[in-house]
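Lecture 7 notes: from sequence to structure.

We start with a single chain of 191 residues. Read the sequence below before looking at the structure.
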Amino acid sequence: MKFIGRTIAISIIMFFHTSYLIYYFYRDGRIDIPDILGYPLFFCIAYWAGKQYDKATFFSEKDPLTNLYNRRFVMYSFDKILALTDRSNSKLFIMVIDCDNFKEINDIYGHSKGDLVLKTIGEALVKTTRKSDVVSRWGGDEFLINGQYKDDSGLQIIHQRLSEEFRNLYELIKLADEEMYNHKWKKKESQ
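Now the structure, written as tokens:
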């Protein structure tokens, strides 16, 4: 979560409170103790208000399940990404990742396991992409990656890393599924 709201709120409140103290110091020639003690109180109020703004901004840009950017953020920032691509004389890429047969995962193993799969996919996408790439959950079981590349070899490297990571992830899920099946089978035999 960013600190923009907290920084702005604290700056504004502290500026006005300091201005208030300076005005009364020049007018009366003194500053009262309660006015000085107002600093911590106003700081706390400003921090709290700024944090509420930061939370609202965070949750309007992020998917709560995967902590990736959401569709709203991508739509809002797409023009900025496109302009940056033009300025840096690079090309824009957009990759759409769709989880085939995801409904079956939810139906067979339950929604909590489906959520875990979505989180794991999101983590794998973040792990294999660059910090400059925007990884988002487009909706349901679809993910989107957009970013810049200078030449085709850069794009191939990203694609290769993603393919390798998903191959490893698939093998891990497959092993876990077989282990769970074997555990259920042994349990039935012992009864």
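The helical segments are 4-28, 33-61, 71-87, 102-109, 111-128, 152-190. Keep this in mind for problem set 3.
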